[in-house]
Amino acid sequence: MELEKNYIRNYLKGQKEKEIGEKVPVDKVGNIPLDMNQFRMLFSTCKIPGITRDSIINYFKTESEGHCPNHIAVLCRGRVFVFDVMHEGCLITPPELLRQLTYIYKKCHSEPDGPGVPALTCEERTQWAKAREHLISLNPQNLTFLEKIQSSLLVYSFEDGSPHVTPQNYSQVLEALLVGDPVVRWGDKSYNLISFSNGVFGSNCDHAPFDAMTMVSIGYYVDEKILETEGRWKGSEKGQDIPLPEELVFTVDKKILNDINQAKAQYLKQASDLQVVAYAFTSFGKKLTKKKMLHPDTFIQLALQLAYYRLHGSPGCCYETAMTRYFYHGRTETVRSCTVEAIKWCQSMQDPSASFLEKQQNMLQAFAKHNKMMKDCSAGKGFDRHLLGLLLIAKEEGLPVPELFTDPLFSRSGGGGNFVLSTSLVGYLRVQGVVVPMVHNGYGFFYHIRDDRFVVACTAWKSCLDTDAEKLVQLIFCSFHDMMQLMNTAHL
């Protein structure tokens, strides 16, 4: 009996400790709670390159679990610094944080640039793994420095550029965030927070530890706090006596310097090949589509299908992310937006003999099919993750790979990571994202939805003469208008 009492007492104590330290509210869809495990991976998480296989290491702990790293890494002009953001158990204040960052900024802008070790993280994975092993062999302290960066809460990057951005055009800033200066990116880090000289902020994240919506939640939280405080610190300007940032000066040799130059060259070559187009469509948004009883996410997905069909004269196999966080440690499933119903509607839209009513009915059938697929995939009734599991089991067990996976039609339909359209909704808030195409002749397409607008970001490879992100986005905007016209009852 006494043992049971002690167990209960300790359990309640543990629950109370968790209440103290684990304060992020549980996400919900309606009244249904979602798995929150991905939020554990946001801070103090890093990918470690391997010769044959990478790994992910997570140093984060809640207050009830033990000590958690409390430092950040700062990258500026090829140099690396670290400093604690907790002092005597409390977060340092904005004036104290400003002092630390100003110290780094002034030091880097008055002294020679560093060797640019972070650029190695943007190299091809096996090359980076080999360079990392060589870097560690030069001096054991190099490993200590790498572990400090890996375990940091996040990496903060100073970018010297000033990308143009307006509420209608996000192209330059999203391109700078996605493929900016490699010497101020730690490509393996779960969270790179980036600031530009004109005061614009953004982030660059590794997708492996968590999905986009985890970062969207944090971005929205920060955005709300800035609006709430009007961007002004209202506390004391007096700072505590906090140690200055520590610079991590790596021991490098000629080979490492050559590796860095090679990494920068290949990164910049590939970055220069990327076309990024990100515009706001402001004629209408969620409010009007909902009024017309059209799901806004499906509205954009079908507009993309129509735009692709008009531009390329054929359907485009499409990946859309479905969230599976209803399940324990759930991540995603694939919604294949290029349905038979969607193709039939696209064909009717291009057919001069098709009636207005026929086009409208075809569109509504495509909407119904897409809505059902999204619901089924989110409920664990999709098939792409199941097929991936079967393929991996066959490979791990040394079994013959099922014929399905070697059938050319499997790849043409998008299987094996070959989707021509790689897409995702990034929420209904003010946060926008961007992604590179999955294949050379494809497009990356992220979008967010607001009451009065849709903001889309589209990418394509310039070296592919068949694709054009600018044309596709303009055709998507035309599709928005055409689809809304189909819901105009005056034509019936």
Count every helix, treating DSSP H or I runs of 4 or more residues as helices. Answer: 14
Strand content: 15-25%
pLDDT < 50 stretches:
1-20
Q: Label the overall shape.
A: globular
Q: Helix share of residues?
A: 40-55%
* Overall strand count: 18
Mean of the pLDDT scores?
A: 93
Radius of gyration: 25 Å
Beginning-to-end CA distance, first to last residue: 76 Å
Structural class: alpha+beta
Order of the strands making up the biggest sheet: 11-10-9-5-6-12
Pathway: Lipid metabolism; fatty acid beta-oxidation
Family: Belongs to the carnitine/choline acetyltransferase family.
GO biological process, one term: fatty acid metabolic process
InterPro entries: Carn_acyl_trans (IPR000542), CAT-like_dom_sf (IPR023213), Cho/carn_acyl_trans (IPR039551), Cho/carn_acyl_trans_2 (IPR042231)
Polypeptide structure, described:
There is one protein chain. This protein is an alpha+beta fold and 492 residues long. It has helices at 2-21, 94-110, 125-138, 140-151, 171-178, 212-229, 254-272, 286-291, 296-312, 340-349, 356-378, 384-396, 408-412, 469-486, and strands at 28-29, 32-33, 45-48, 55-58, 71-76, 79-84, 86-87, 90-91, 155-158, 192-195, 201-204, 246-247, 274-281, 318-323, 332-336, 421-425, 443-450, 453-461. The strands form five sheets. It has a six-stranded mixed sheet, with helices on both faces. Strands 13-18-17-16-14-15 form a six-stranded mixed sheet, sandwiched between helices. Helix 10 (340-349) packs antiparallel against helix 11. The protein starts with a helix and ends in a 6-residue tail after the last helix.
